Amino acid sequence: MQKPVRGASAGVAILLAAAVLLAALPAAAAAGQGPVEGGRYKVHVLTIGQGDALFSRFGHIGLVVDDRAQRTRKVYNFGTFDFEDPALRIRYARGYLIYWLSIASYRTLLEFYQYDNRDVRLRTLALAPAQAEEVATRLDINARPENREYQYRHYLDNCCTRIRDIIDNATGGAIRRGRDSEPTGRTYRDWTRRELEGMPIYSTVILYSLGPAIDRPITRWDEEFLPSVLSEDLDATRLPDGRKLVESSRAVLTRRGPAVGSEIATSDIVVIAALGAVLAFGLLVPLFARRRGLANRALGVGLFSYGLLAGLGGLMLVLYWTVTTHTDTHYNENLLVTPVTHLWLLGPGLKLLFTGRLGARTRRVLEVYAAAALGVVFLDLALKLGPFIQGNTGIIAFAAFADAALLVGLRRCR
Question: Model-level pTM?
Answer without folding.
Answer: 0.86
